[in-house]
Amino acid sequence: MDAPLPLILTALLAAGAVLLPGARPRALATLGALILAPALLVADIWDTDQVRPLRDHPSVAVAGVVVGLGVLAGLAVLIDRRPAAFPLLAAFAIPFRVPIASGGSTANLLVPLYVVVGAGALAYAVPRIFGEKTELRERKATMLEWLVAGAVVLYAVQASYSDDFDKALENVVFFYVPFALLFALLARIAWTKKLAVQVLGVLTVLALAFACIGFVEYATRHLFLNPKVIASNQFEAYFRVNSLFFDPNIYGRFLAIVIIGLAAALIWSTRPRDIWGITAILAVLMAGLVLTLSQSSFAALLLGLLVLAGARWSPRWALGVGAAALVIGALFVVAAPSSVRLDLNSSKSADTATSGRYDLVKGGVNLFADKPLQGYGSGAFSRAYRRAERGSQEKAVSASHTIPITVAAEQGVPGLLVYVALLVAGFAALLRGVRGDPVRAGVAAAFAALVLHTWSYASFLEDPLTWSLLGLGLALSLVPRSRRRRVGETAPAETTAAA
């Protein structure tokens, strides 16, 4: 499918849902993006085998559409009447993925989250289009919102010359547009301490359930999902679990984010009951994280904990500990490289020690050097790498697991500048006022951990946790100082009760 103009229009509508002044224009843009994105998706996957039963039986397709619209309408009514239900439903839906064939490959998509975002968008848009609701207080778009919207539009524009337009279309429709709507909806919620704690409680219950499933997988030496991980476990001395996720690293990322949220509640706790309760939950989740054997998740967790320590006690102390850890780690690698299977005189050894990342990153840098101004186009990393390096499809896909390199190779200098500016604006908004506030400190620490995780694995703007943390952090940063204390106080006790 070659339809860059509709794709760009969809991205512009999503950007309008974030940026446009006035409730009604934003609502119209939200509804437009909500309609156009699924239309592009249907056109993209219409010829796949998974859609063939619907093509052959149109009555079943019509019935499915009617049922789907009914579910959306029902959830939209619920969210309209109880706006706090939206972030709770979104938190519950975030981890669940459904395999969908598209563009000749299979993607694990967050279909339950799409349903929740669609319902939330309807609940926001319809009453405002018909004038039944208006915003109590309008505000100008922040720099973070401009950069988020700009990233979506730039990605769609650079898809027009991409070496892999189908991949770019899938990313925009599956991730960028729905998650931009998620960001916009979360940023406009009137967040309270109680609501933030309830969201953490939902995530904690899910994390505990996933950890228990991981324990069963480890005990039985049987994984429920992902044939690649199953095959890998058969040839390695270790055994990795992924619970109901398709990847141990994504599972580890989710656990690390939840652990950081609970750690924020723990270090601000004062009552022994709260401390013991949260500690018991953390012990279970840490055991689950260990079984993933995800090095990137452990590194992300450590960074998140350092950010929390800086917010709770001393930023200088936290920076000092972090710097000391880096120095010790570097000295350990230099002094005993064989312990990490590294030969300092061999690039092949470096590639093996980094699970193939060394050569892949080097290849990505070469792609950026070939086309530094415009890049190869959105979503084109895998195809361009395979062509340039004569690598296999599997290795080319793994090459996209270092986000800054991927952005540079695909989008060139413009994309890299937007990415860096987005990080700067994101951290500026999330870190502002974190001292003494466990909610804001937890959000900032979780975002820092996620960013580090994307530097050694994949999925930055393709992960709804990124957009959720940015939306929540932005909303909290806009809370007047007089209300800030009420949002963060006594969170630990309610966290224990919710979890």
Provide an overview of this structure.
With 499 residues, this protein is an all-alpha fold. The protein contains 23 helices and two strands. It has a two-stranded antiparallel ribbon with strand order 1-2. The C terminus is likely disordered.
Overall pLDDT score: 83
Largest sheet geometry: 2 strands, antiparallel
- Which stretches of 5+ consecutive residues score pLDDT under 50? 487-499
Order of helices and strands: HHHHHEEHHHHHHHHHHHHHHHHHH
Number of helices: 23
Beta-strand segment tally: 2
Could you say which overall geometry the principal axes of the C-alpha atoms support? globular
Query: How many angstroms separate the termini?
Result: 46 Å
Structural class: mainly alpha
Portion of residues in beta strands equals: under 5%
| Major sheet strand order | 1-2
The helix content is: over 70%
Q: Report the C-alpha radius of gyration, rounded.
A: 23 Å
Secondary structure: elements and pairs:
Blueprint: H1 4-19, H2 23-45, H3 52-56, H4 58-81, H5 85-93, E1 98-102, E2 105-109, H6 111-129, H7 143-158, H8 165-187, H9 193-220, H10 227-235, H11 248-267, H12 272-290, H13 295-312, H14 315-335, H15 347-353, H16 357-370, H17 381-389, H18 393-399, H19 403-431, H20 438-456, H21 464-477, H22 481-488, H23 491-498
Antiparallel strand pairs: 1-2
Short description:
The chain has helices spanning 4-19, 23-45, 52-56, 58-81, 85-93, 111-129, 143-158, 165-187, 193-220, 227-235, 248-267, 272-290, 295-312, 315-335, 347-353, 357-370, 381-389, 393-399, 403-431, 438-456, 464-477, 481-488, 491-498; strands at 98-102, 105-109.
